[in-house]
Amino acid sequence: MKKRVSAIPKGYRSVTPTLIVNGLLSALEFYEKAFAAEVINVKYNQAAYAPIHAEIKIGNSNIKLFEQNPNLGLLAPTGEPSPITLQIYSENIQQSWQNSLDAGSRVLLAMDAQYWGELLGVLMDPFGHTWVLSEKTENLKPAELEAREAKLFDNTGL
């Protein structure tokens, strides 16, 4: 009897982000430095020996990367913050934050304690992708969260 093939490959989740970058090998180097990414594989166009695809793992999550190829409709961001963000949760998010800045990221929202119990900041990497870096710092009960929201919104006029 033939063993059933799993629809989701081993090690993957139901949703796997795919990033298009202009400079795949540079992006891999950046993600290794910034987020301690593990490079799973790199595929090359054998005729041109140019990198075309790679996979990395950050924490327990896989991310696919493709080199920009306008002929296939694969276009990297153009320098403006992307409307899509990837969020990283980590036990030492401040180290990831600093590593990302040292590797060339730009701050979009400074790292700060948030009312919902997270330390959070937003960066744009050198390839135009937006990252939210977070660390849960408090376990709040619904009533505590509601009280904080009420206080915040009462003070800001939102």
Mind explaining what this structure looks like?
The protein has 158 residues and is an alpha/beta fold. Helices cover 23% and strands 35% of the residues.
Summarize the structure.
The protein has 158 residues and is of the alpha/beta class. It has helices at residues 24-35, 93-102, 142-156, and strands spanning 18-21, 38-45, 50-58, 61-67, 85-89, 106-114, 118-124, 130-136.
Question: Which features characterize this protein?
Answer:
four-stranded mixed beta sheet; 158 residues; alpha/beta; 3 helices
The multimeric state of the shown protein is single chain
Total of DSSP H or I helical runs spanning 4+ residues = 3
Q: Please report the distance between the alpha carbons of the first and last residues.
A: 62 Å
Alpha-carbon Rg, integer: 19 Å
The average pLDDT value, as a whole number, equals 92
- What is the ordering of alpha helices and beta strands? EHEEEEHEEEH
How many strands?
8
Helix content: 10-25%
Helices, strands, pairings?
Blueprint: E1 18-21, H1 24-35, E2 38-45, E3 50-58, E4 61-67, E5 85-89, H2 93-102, E6 106-114, E7 118-124, E8 130-136, H3 142-156
Parallel strand pairs: 1-4, 5-8
Antiparallel strand pairs: 2-3, 3-4, 6-7, 7-8
